[in-house]
Amino acid sequence: MSPHPLPCLTALGLLHIHHRQKRRKMEAFQVCCSINNGSYEDCCLKYVRRVKKTAVRMVTSYRRQETDGGCNIHAIVFTMKRGRLFCADPREKWVNELMLKVETKKSKKHMKGLKKRGG
Question: Does domain 9-117 have CATH number 2.40.50.40?
Fold first, then answer.
């Protein structure tokens, strides 16, 4: 018989965006730490509805969150330049457009690196 996982602990993370000396908070990421067979998992518990253009420009990468394991919702977890995270609904049009932008940026950087090395 497998051990029952401990109740899920949640913590709300806030993204702080400075814009013309005004601090704006945007609900960004909720972390679900569940202990399942001795491992911890970070899970999105809900999505942001929209993101400011300044935040979109700061996105450097993303990963997919699947519902297997300890996570209950499908999500795209975007990572920003300073390591901040936000979760988005993969069914939203703007989310897919942002994923494409991230892939395009990565591809351009990779091609630049190849040109510099002469390959």
Answer: yes
* Type and span of the H or E element at 64: strand 59-65
Question: Each residue of 11-51: pLDDT tens digit?
Answer: 333 333 344 333 333 333 344 444 444 555 689 999 999 99
CA distance 54 to 100: 17
- Residue 40 and residue 34 in contact, taking contact as beta carbons nearer than 8 Å: yes
Domain ranges of the chain: 9-117
Residues present in the chain in total: 119
Residue 100: count other Cβ atoms within 10 Å of its Cβ.
Answer: 10
| Global pTM value | 0.62
